[in-house]
Design a protein that fits this description.
Shape: globular
Bound molecules: D-[(amino)carbonyl]phenylalanine
Helix content: 10-25%
Strand content: 25-35%
Largest sheet: 6 strands, mixed
Amino acid sequence: MSNKVKLAVAQLGPNQPDMSRAENVNRLCDMMREAASAGAKIITFPELALTAFFPRHWIENEAELNAYYETSMPSPVTQQLFDLSRDLDVSFYLGYAELTEDGHRFNTSILVRAGEIIGKYRKIHLPGHSEYKKAPFQHLEKRYFEVGDLGLPVFEDRDLQIGMCLCNDRRWPETFRVMSLQGAELVMLGYNTPVHNIHWSEPEHLRMFHNRLVLQAAAYQNSLWLCAAAKAGTEDGSILIGGSCIVAPTGEIVAQATSVDDEVITFDADFELGQGFRKNVFNFAAHRRPEFYGEITRPVEAAGNGNH
Ligand code: ING
């Protein structure tokens, strides 16, 4: 017996600073149409998909900073994406910068089913730094966003249990374990992964290697289908990796972008595949021993000397 749902990942090429939200949304709509025409029912867009990746810059003017955030969702300019989702009966994940009515800033993703928001997530692992660094690019997510306050929830769509995360979250195994323990079968995520931003010398090839490593490990160790959508290419002078992909619960990459531009990839995912691993190799009830895992949840200041 199979339970197949066609998944799509819509990779974005650069959102140059002089490109308007409307232009970027039009690109998202074009890719939603392409994915839907290929039979996809669930589409993943990147992190911060509506604007350039502004945490690469030191921004002191509040009005200039606020221009990168959404104060409503759907907003007038994103309404057409919601409408298209309804007209095509597709679901989508969208990453964007959220500014709440009471002034809180989050790196946010939403899950939208046929035009209605059915899930929201706010990024909890914020990489980089909050003070200015003397370097070609900053990575100021700790300055421009608060740690997410919604936890790592799992939502139901089309009889599937779906979780969401964002970019750096994928480097932390706890992210996927927490969602898998809640029954997640699919996790959707977007990323903006610069080649030069973390201010230590890391060979460039490792960015793509680590991207694949963490996604494949997470999918296998948690019996998950993963959809990972990059914002790619040289954006505002900063090189962002591509490599958008769909990963099976086997840990195998079953579809992968070959460009660093707007590109849709799809795969007909059988959600029965994950059940086999979930019932055997990763049968959590039969094999996990959480009584030995306490160190993982000890607060940072109290944990053993392994905590840097
Ligand atoms: N970007 C990067 C990411 O985690 C990064 C930041 C890159 C951290 C490489 C560590 C190593 O893919 C975001 N937006 O989190």
